[in-house]
Amino acid sequence: MSTETRRVRNHIDGEFREAADGRTSEVIDPTTGTPYTTAPLSGAADVDAAMAAAEAAFPAWRDTTPATRQLALLRIADAFERHADELLATECRDTGKPLELTREEELPPMLEQIRFFAGAARMLEGKSAGEYMAGLTSFVRREPVGVCAQVVPWNYPLMMAVWKFAPALAAGNTVVIKPSDTTPASLSHAAELLAEILPRGVFNVVCGDRDTGRLMVEHPTPAMVSITGSVRAGTEVATSAAADLKRVHLELGGKAPCVVFDDADLGAAVEGIRDAGFFNAGQDCTAASRVLVHASRYDEFVEALTKAAAEVRTGDVADPDCFYGPLNNADHLAKVSGFVERLPAHARVTTGGQRVGERGYFYAPTVVADCAQDDEIVQREVFGPVISVQRFTDEEEAVAFANGVEYGLASSVWTKDHARAMRMSRALDFGCVWINTHIPLVGEMPHGGFKKSGYGKDLSAYGLEDYTRVKHVMTAL
After folding, report:
1. pLDDT by residue (tens digit) across 94-113?
2. What's the pLDDT at 352?
3. What are phi and psi of 432, to 5 degrees?
4. Over pLDDT 90: what percentage of the chain?
5. Fewer CB under 10 Å: which end of the chain, C or N?
6. How many domains does the structure of the chain reveal?
7. pLDDT the model gives residue 3
8. Mean per-residue pLDDT, 356-377
9. Distances from the Cα of 129 to the Cαs of 133, 143, 144, 382, 465, in angstroms?
């Protein structure tokens, strides 16, 4: 992996800029816990400039043909593929993700998702024109909403940016997007590639902290705000956006239940849940973080998962044998550690439960057994490499336990009984139900949750439609 440190800058109206007032923030390498570069800490002047650029660019971009937008997105995907080594090096420097695993698991879907939205740009559908009143013909137009303010999280900085800018651009919107202050480098780097393809002002990157994001949400220009983040952040955004009735697209937290029935293939369930629980250090809102196991197989499952988890390695970016890297930052390490430190007496840590090393933010793969439904570790999102396990006795109790949290993003069912799987897929109150697998996503299918996991869909044609508005046109014959 290249050790070159790239300069992180804002990208506004086709130009790379520092913050207008010169402020910066340190970017910390999570594998060492030490600063490795700085990024602009943008304020009101920077947000104003980006919004003005996006607003000025919108009419011309809106009026491009779908074929033109498709070609631009295809060229973006090709540019990402050509510059994959540089993008991955930047992404992994910011996040501490294992380089080769990121190349295998994140780059291909990222490219596929951009290319999906390139095709979807030419496939927007609506009701057919018709005479619903005598002498009058009606039809429906789908139009872009305008300028979109987008905020990207730190767990998948580049992929989550793709989930946001690709459908927005495909639909004909212009974008002002902010990376997390802890992982700004890959999106700033990507802006160099998009600048060679898109007209000035269509795509703008503003780096900064929560206050910068707040300025974007409160700004009068955007017609839509889209964030991926915590429930707290989503509530603040929705409240702020309500003041001038902006559209809001929220992809928030999750606490995915994995329901393992007595007839499940236990080996497959253990392997699938282990991988989906610890991938990206569990820093995934769909992570297999909460396992419900039928009482008759409970002890067997806990023993097998404990053994499998103990074999998982966390390590440095360049370590080809590690499965996940560090947690994102010092505050998050303290948060994850706190969940385990506060466990009630009836819960037991069967493996892990501690920080790994004294340098960086590494945490051991952890399994917590004998959890109760009202335990904090069951009810709240840990967002780390920690899997809780609890018993259930029958299907009714499994549904009650699975649904008994405030989140509703993703879930999985492990059983050989097709009828049971279908009943569970209907009963589980989550935006995604996997059966005998957990965590795969495809560009053609929607991703998004219920309850406090937010609203709106990423990926799929539904994701594209979220970035459009519907207009009825009626003409006299």
Report:
1. 999 999 999 999 999 999 99
2. 98
3. -140, 135
4. 96
5. C
6. 2
7. 46
8. 97
9. 12, 16, 20, 50, 19
- Over the stretch 321-343, which tens digit does the pLDDT of each residue have? 899 999 999 999 999 999 999 99
In sequence order, what are the residues at sequence separation of 6 or more whose Cβ sits closer than 8 angstroms to the Cβ of residue 239? none
Q: Is residue 238 exposed (0-12), middle (13-18) or buried (19+ Cβ within 10 Å)?
A: middle
52 & 107 share domain: yes
* pLDDT tens, residue by residue, 237-265: 999 999 999 999 999 999 999 999 999 99
pTM: 0.96
pLDDT of residue 4: 59
Read off the tokens for 287: 């992570």
Q: pLDDT tier at 127 (50, 70, 90 boundaries)?
A: confident
With CA atoms as reference, report the closest residue to 130 among 119, 140, 139, 122: 139
Same domain, 101 and 28: yes
Please tell me the distance from the alpha carbon of residue 154 to that of residue 209, in angstroms, as a whole number.
Answer: 12
Residue 461 and residue 438 in one domain = no
251 is catalytic: yes
2 falls within a domain: no
CATH number of the domain to which 373 belongs: 3.40.309.10
Q: Which residue type sits at 90?
A: T
The answer on 240 and 339 residing in a single domain is no
Residue 95 forms part of a structural domain: yes
The CA–CA distances, whole Å, from 440 to 55, 402, 448 equal 36, 20, 14
* C-alpha distances out from residue 10 to 41, 48, 159, 306, 328, Å: 9, 13, 19, 45, 22
Percent helix / strand / coil, the chain, rounded to 5: 40, 25, 35
Is the domain of 244 the same as that of 337?
no
User: 48 and 187, same structural domain?
Assistant: yes
Q: How far apart are the first and last CA of the chain?
A: 66
How is 103-152 classified by DSSP, letter by letter? HHHTHHHHHHHHHHHHHHTT----PPPEEEETTEEEEEEEEE-SEEEEE-
pLDDT band, residue 126 (cuts 50/70/90)? confident
Whether 448 maps to a domain, the answer reads no
Residue among 251, 311, 397, 444 flagged as catalytic: 251
Looking at the structure, tell me whether residues 103 and 21 fall in a common domain: yes
**Domain extent at residue 463:** 10-252+453-476
- Paired strand residues for 355: 363
Q: How many Cα atoms are found within 13 Å in the side-chain-facing hemisphere of 65?
A: 3
Q: Look at residue 418 and tell me if it is in a domain.
A: yes
**Same domain (yes/no): 149, 209:** yes
